UniProtKB/TrEMBL annotation:
Organism for this UniProt entry: Hyphomonas chukchiensis
GO biological process: hydrogen peroxide catabolic process; response to oxidative stress
Highest taxon above the source species: Bacteria
The name this protein goes by in its record: Catalase
GO cellular component: cytosol
GO molecular function terms listed in the Swiss-Prot or TrEMBL record: catalase activity; heme binding; metal ion binding
Broad class of enzyme this protein falls into: oxidoreductase
Length: 528
C-alpha cells in the first residue's frame, strides 16, 4: 500500500474478498481481516454474556477509548489550512536563509489560527488574543513563525507565563468562566502586573475580535535575528498583513455571533477555501541594527513593546496564500506542533526573556501532548526536505536510522556510515559577545510600562476609545472584588486620565490616585 498522507482515507483496493457484493470496500479490522458483523458483539446465548473471542469488538472499543489526546495547554481551539509562501523581495543582504532569499519559489506551509484561553470547544469570537502560527517547510528544514494577532505580549519574562495562563483560564474551584477575560483571577493578576498594561489596551480595543481570520493581522512579536552569509547579524520583527485589510466585529456583534454560531471563524475559512476564494497575507519585516537598538527609547528585547512603523517602516517581502483545506482535522490541525525554536540557518533568536522560555516550553509540552519523542515523524510535522539523524527508537518510531551505523564518529564510509555534520552549511548560532553577571533580574530598560499603552490609546479614534472604555467597564464590572477593580483604574490613570474617569464612573467608583509601584501588592493600593 501507498504510505499514508495525513488524513488520507484508509488503504484502497486490495484482494478481491475486500470488496462487498454491492461494490463497497469491505470493512476490515486493523489487521486487515474482513468484518462480518459491525452491529452486534459475540455472545454466549441470546442475549448472553460477551465472549472474549470477539477480537473485532475488543479492537473497536479499545481504539475508541483512546481517541482523545490532551488538548493544547493554551491555544487549544484552532483552525488551520495549507498554502504556500512566495518571496518577492530578497533579504540576501541580511540573511542566508533560502526562504528569505530565493524569490519566486513557492515554499509549502501550514498555518494554524487559534484563540488562547478557551478550551477546544469554546466559541470562536471570544475577547481573546488570536494565535497566528505558520510552519514553512523549507529546503533547509522547518521554520516556524509562531505569532499572534497583537504585536506585543502581556508579560516580559517566561517565568510568569504559567501564572498568566492560570489566571486567564477557568478558576480552579468553579471550573469557569470558559473563554472569557471577565473574571476576578484574570484582572487580579493583570492589575498586579503593570507590564501587561500595553497588551491590555489592545485586548480591550476593537482590534481584538476579527470579523474573519482572513481579515486578521499577525506578528512574530519578539525581536529575532537575521544572520547573513558573512556572519553579520541584524534584528528583525515579522508582520503578516491581510490582503483584504483588517476588519473586526464589535462586542455586541461578537456576543450574538457566538450564540448563533460558535464556529463562525472556522466555517468562514473552510467556506472561503472551498469556494476558491483563497485568503492571502503579505509578509513584512522591520529590520534594524545594534545602533538603532541602542538608541531606541525601549529595549528591543522587551516583548511588551513594539517598534513604531514610523521609526522602522515595514518592508513587504512576500506573500502567503492559503489554498487547501485539511483532509483530516485531527491528523493535521490537532497534531501539528509549532515551536519558536524551529529556525533555519540565517534566522536566530534575540535575548528576549520571553522568547528564550518559549523555545523550551513548546518542545516540552509536545512530548506529552503527542505521546513521545517521535512526533516529528507525523506527516504534518515532518520536514519536506530529508531528515537524517542518529536519533532512534521510542514510541511510534517510523524513521529509524537506515543501515549499520547509528553513532558517529564511525568509519563505515559514505555507503554505510550514515549522515555527517556539515561544517559549511549546518546551522550556526550567532556568536554574540556576552558580558554580565548570572542573576535573575529584570533589566531597568524594561521598566516603562505605560508610555506605549498611552500611545496606543491616543492613536485610536474617538469611537474606538469609547469602545475601549465600554469594554473595560463591562469586563471589570464582572469582577467581584472591589480592590481589583480599583487597582485597575489606578493603572488607567497612568495611561489616560480621561479613560480612567470614564471607567471609574461606569463602575460607580471615585477615580483613585495613579498607581505608583512598579510591582504593586495589595498594600501598595493608593487610598481613593
Ligand atoms: C501555543 C507556551 C508566549 C503564540 C503554546 C503552547 C505552549 C505555549 C505550551 C502549546 C503548544 C502545543 O501544545 O503544541 C508559551 C510560553 C510563552 C508563550 C511559555 C511565554 C513564555 C507566546 C507568545 C506568542 C505565542 C508571545 C505569540 C507571539 C502561540 C501560538 C500557539 C501557542 C500561536 C498555538 C500554536 C498552534 O497553533 O498549535 N504556547 N507561549 N505564545 N503559542 Fe505560546
Amino acid at each position: 500500500p501507498m504510505p499514508m498522507k495525513p488524513g488520507a482515507p484508509l488503504d484502497k483496493g486490495g484482494a478481491p474478498h475486500q470488496t462487498t457484493k454491492d461494490g463497497y470496500e469491505a470493512m476490515t479490522t486493523q489487521q486487515g481481516v474482513p468484518v462480518r458483523d459491525d452491529q452486534n458483539h459475540l455472545k454466549a446465548g441470546t442475549p448472553g454474556p460477551m465472549l472474549m473471542d470477539d477480537f473485532h469488538f475488543r479492537e473497536k472499543m479499545f481504539h475508541f477509548d483512546h481517541e482523545r489526546i490532551p488538548e493544547r495547554v493554551v491555544h487549544a481551539r484552532g483552525y488551520a489550512a495549507h498554502g504556500f509562501f512566495e518571496l518577492t523581495d530578497s533579504l540576501e543582504e541580511f540573511t542566508s536563509a533560502k526562504v528569505l532569499t530565493e524569490t519566486g519559489k513557492k515554499v509549502p506551509l501550514f498555518t494554524r489560527f487559534s484563540t488562547v484561553a478557551g478550551n477546544k470547544g469554546s466559541p470562536d469570537l471570544a475577547r481573546d488574543v488570536r494565535g497566528f502560527a505558520v510552519k514553512f517547510y523549507t529546503d533547509e528544514g522547518n521554520w516556524d513563525l509562531v505569532g499572534n494577532n497583537i504585536p506585543v505580549f502581556f508579560i516580559q519574562d517566561a517565568m510568569k507565563f504559567p501564572d498568566l495562563i492560570h489566571s486567564a483560564k477557568a478558576e480552579p474551584d468553579r471550573g469557569f468562566p470558559q473563554a472569557q477575560t471577565a473574571h476576578d483571577n484574570f484582572w487580579d493578576f493583570i492589575s498586579l502586573s503593570p507590564e501587561a498594561m500595553h497588551m491590555v489596551m489592545w485586548i480591550m480595543s476593537d482590534r481584538t475580535i476579527p470579523r474573519s481570520l482572513r481579515f486578521m493581522e499577525g506578528f512574530g512579536v519578539h525581536t529575532f535575528r537575521l544572520i547573513n552569509s558573512k556572519g553579520k547579524s541584524s534584528f528583525v520583527k515579522f508582520h503578516w498583513k491581510p490582503k483584504m485589510g483588517m476588519q473586526s466585529v464589535v462586542w455586541n456583534e461578537a456576543v450574538k455571533i457566538n450564540g448563533a454560531d460558535p464556529d463562525f471563524h472556522r466555517r468562514d475559512l473552510w467556506n472561503a477555501i472551498e469556494m476558491g476564494d483563497f485568503p492571502e497575507w503579505e509578509l513584512g519585516v522591520q529590520i534594524f541594527d545594534d545602533a538603532f537598538a541602542d538608541k531606541f527609547a525601549f529595549d528591543v528585547r522587551d516583548a511588551t513593546k513594539l517598534i513604531p512603523e514610523e521609526e522602522i517602516p515595514v518592508r513587504i517581502i512576500g506573500r502567503m496564500v492559503l489554498d487547501r483545506r485539511v483532509d483530516n482535522f485531527f491528523a493535521e490541525t490537532e497534531q501539528v506542533a509549532f515551536c519558536t525554536g524551529n529556525v533555519v540557518p540565517g534566522i536566530g533568536f534575540s535575548d528576549d526573556p520571553l522568547l528564550q522560555g518559549r523555545n523550551f516550553s513548546y518542545l516540552d509540552t509536545q512530548i506529552k501532548r503527542l505521546g513521545g519523542p517521535n512526533f516529528t515523524h507525523i506527516p504534518i510535522n515532518a520536514p519536506k526536505c530529508p531528515m537524517r539523524t542518529f536519533q532512534q527508537d521510542g514510541h511510534m518510531a517510523m524513521k529509524n536510522p537506515v543501515g549499520r551505523a547509528n553513532y558517529e564518529p564511525n568509519s563505515w564510509g559514505t555507503k554505510d556510515g550514515g549522515p555527517r555534520e556539515d561544517p559549511d552549511n549546518g546551522y550556526q548560532h550567532f556568536a554574540e559577545p556576552i558580558d554580565g553577571k548570572k542573576e535573575a533580574l529584570r533589566p531597568e530598560s524594561f521598566a516603562d510600562h505605560y508610555s506605549q499603552a498611552r500611545q496606543f490609546y491616543i492613536s485610536q479614534t474617538e469611537v474606538e476609545q469609547a469602545h475601549m472604555g465600554d469594554a473595560l467597564v463591562f469586563e471589570l464590572s464582572k469582577v467581584e472584588k472591589a480592590e481589583i477593580r480599583e487597582r485597575m483604574v489606578a493603572h488607567l490613570v497612568n495611561i489616560d486620565k480621561g479613560l480612567a474617569d470614564t471607567v471609574a464612573e461606569g463602575l460607580g467608583i471615585k477615580t483613585p490616585m495613579a498607581m505608583k509601584a512598579a510591582r504593586p501588592t495589595m498594600q501598595d493600593l493608593p487610598a481613593s
